[in-house]
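Predict the 3D structure for this chain.
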Amino acid sequence: MPSSSVDTSHDGGWLDRSEAPVAQAGLSVPFDFESNGKRTGAISLVTSDSEIGWQAVQIPVGVVKNGAGPTLTVAGGTHGDEPEGPVAAMKLLHRLQPDAIRGRVIVLPALNLQAVEAGRREAPSDGLDLNRVFPGDPAGSIAQVTASFVDEVILPLSDIVLDVHSGGRSMHFPGSLWLLECADAEMMSRTLDAAGAFGAPYTIVSPSLGGDMSEAAVRHGCLYLSTELSGGGAVNPDFLAVIERGIGRLIVHLGMVDGKSGSLASPRMMAVKGSEGIVSAPCHGLFEPYVCVEHRVRAGEPLGCIHSVIAPGNAGLEVLSPVDGMVYGLRWPAHVRRAERIAIIATDD
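Done. Predicted structure below.
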């Protein structure tokens, strides 16, 4: 495993990932990651569960490489109900040619393939959230084995990871990047520079959710950006364009192609401070929102109302904002169960 210190002996100050090993028990890789050119295939990992027994987990992968330079990894499908990532990643892989870049782009369009095929947040075989089980377990379930592969193989190869997320079936977000609040000032500064180059309208800084890819990336000295945008389980062309333009600007920022990323308005910096901005449903029912995403609210202001269809004589129960801020995330489907998330309020950073 390479050191997490920055090697400034080559252009850009990126880590030297050339000797990072591609090795893990039960791992089958269809090609090597070091040769120049463009390759696609599927990585095979071995796992087992109580229903299926032994099985091979497939992770689609593409690598585009041309000589020395930084390594950008673009991942989609960490959650299977977020189709924007797989679509953006596959389009990137289709159009990117080796002679157009310096360095390496690793594309993982459906990191949690079983979940993507099922259109569910988690893989049906284990029901675990892939983004909550890092660093994973090479002898574990499908989510744990996949997380272990990313932690042991992909992150040591990568200088920066763009993990494309959206609201999935349950939430809706504005165009934004979600960054881990990092104690390493130099790494935080470089992450913010990369986020500025990506050019999403909002940048949200938040503590770790625990067991997620961002924590693992920081451990490996790898910059990490995550989109949070759109939602509803559908691909919105406007938000897809935000992702595609952002990837193009990020490639320029990394020095992988010549040019300038262009003049952009500074992203609005906001924060979600742990659980204080998370609003959960106090009861089961149908959620009627009073506000939209990006709406400014005051603490105590009603965000919406939950109507109980089994008690039609009762007035709906209003849900209040816990803090002053902006409605960053809002529940998409009306049907809600007690304790499910219905809103996220971001505060000015």
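Residues 79 and 121 are 5 Å apart (CA to CA).
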